[in-house]
Structures are given as C-alpha cells and as structure tokens.
Design a protein that fits this description.
Helices cover 25% and strands 29% of the residues. It is α/β, with parallel strands linked by helices. The strands form two sheets. Strands 1-2-3-4-5-6-7 form a seven-stranded mixed sheet. The chain has a six-stranded mixed sheet with strand order 8-9-10-11-12-13, covered by helices on one side. Helix 5 runs antiparallel to helix 6.
C-alpha cells in the first residue's frame, strides 16, 4: 500500500498475517529501511510485498525495530537472513530480544516462542541519526510501553513522517511498562508536530490535527468511544 513517494505499508492485517503489527518500508535512492518485521508467520508474503515496492533497484539496508514485542519482531530473523540487513534497536529492549524472553516480548501472548535474535546496533542515546542512502531517519527513545521503545522520524517532500508504533499502548506488568514514562513520551512525541503518523495497529493517520488528536486521546483517555 503506497502512502507517499517512496513510502509504503508492506505488512500488517490484510497485507501479511492478521497477527502482525503494521510493517512500513521507506526508500532513499538505492537504499531502504524496514520499520518492524511482524510475527514472521507470513514471511513469503512480506518478501513479495517488499519486492513489489523496491524490486531489485534498492538494497534493504536496515531493519529498524521500534520495540521488542513479538508482533513487531517475531519475523526479524527471517528478514535479516533474507536481506542481510542491519538490525537496529534500543539496548534496553535488545536485551530481551537477544535472551529470547517470551514474557517481556509477549511471545507467549501469541502462543509462540521467540528464538534469541542478535541485534547489530544497540542505541543508547535519547536521539540517534541513521543515514539511509541520501536520507536521514532519526531514532528517538520513548520508553513506557516497553523500556526501550523508539519512534522514528524522517522527512519526505517537506512532510515530517512519524513511525510511532503502539503509541496507544497497552501498558502491562509483563511488558515492564511504566505509565509515567509512557505519558512523558507521548508528550514528547506530540511536540514533534508530525504531519503523518504511521501507527502499529491504527495504521496511517494524516494531517497534523488528526495526529495531535490521536496522541491526545492516548494521553487523556476519554469515556467511550476511546481509541485507547
């Protein structure tokens, strides 16, 4: 599903396996980055979707992990094996990915087990710039949903694109969630004033007012119907 020039959704409900969180693909010249990898339960379809977007014209250089939960990382090893890409995650979540921790990664919630996954680049800073081709992706540490949750931002045709997987939560002790950190992170993300939000389970949210409304609804849950 094309979202913008050189920006697509290639995985998630209706595109790969129903249990997959959304998977996004962004391309800059002859390099590309994948944001999250789903559960891996329909890897062949994911590969077909990626090929349909970038073909053989671009190298998938990075797999950028937003956080360690199974619906986002279960397919990471298969993606790494397929493309030889560099796996990036925050060090606080990388520990549970590399240990194959089924509780903190919520693999057990999906009736599955997570094989230990080596993370190639472990981010430690509040913000980190990642060069992809002639483009720039910024990783921003936004803990709360998980200890090492990240959002990623980039610019396409003057728009600020926010890859904000699971801004809606949930918070749960098994996931080592922290409500105070979560709310602080949401306020930080709100200040980015993004033009477009690509969320893990709510899909593409367009226009600054709609993005602000969605994030506000997560900061201050309202009576039904609340999207959080």
């Amino acid at each position: 599903m094309k979202i913008r020039n050189n920006l697509w959704q290639v995985g998630g409900r209706g595109l790969t396996d129903p249990s997959d969180a959304a998977i996004y693909l962004v391309r800059f010249m002859d390099k590309a980055a994948l944001i999250d990898a789903g559960t891996g339960r329909n890897h062949a379809r994911l590969v077909k979707n990626i090929s349909g977007c970038i073909g053989n014209d671009a190298q998938l250089e990075y797999l950028l992990i937003t956080h360690c939960h199974f619906d986002h990382i279960g397919g990471a090893q298969a993606v790494k094996d397929q493309y030889g890409c560099t796996v990036v995650a925050h060090e606080l979540d990388a520990a549970y990915m590399e240990a194959g921790d089924d509780r903190v990664t919520a693999a057990s919630w999906y009736g599955s087990r997570l094989m230990p996954l080596k993370v190639d680049v472990k981010l430690t800073e509040t913000e980190t710039d990642i060069n992809v081709g002639n483009g720039l992706i910024k990783a921003i540490h936004c803990p709360g949903h998980s200890p090492g949750s990240l959002v990623y931002t980039t610019r396409i045709d003057s728009e600020l694109i926010l890859f904000g997987q699971d801004l809606h939560g949930p918070l749960h002790p098994d996931l080592l969630s922290d409500e105070d950190q979560y709310l602080d992170s949401l306020r930080k993300v709100l200040e980015l004033n993004a033009d477009l939000l690509l969320e893990g389970h709510f899909g593409v949210i367009e226009t600054k007012p709609e993005v602000r409304e969605f994030i506000d609804s997560c900061i201050t849950p309202r009576p039904e119907p609340c999207r959080c």
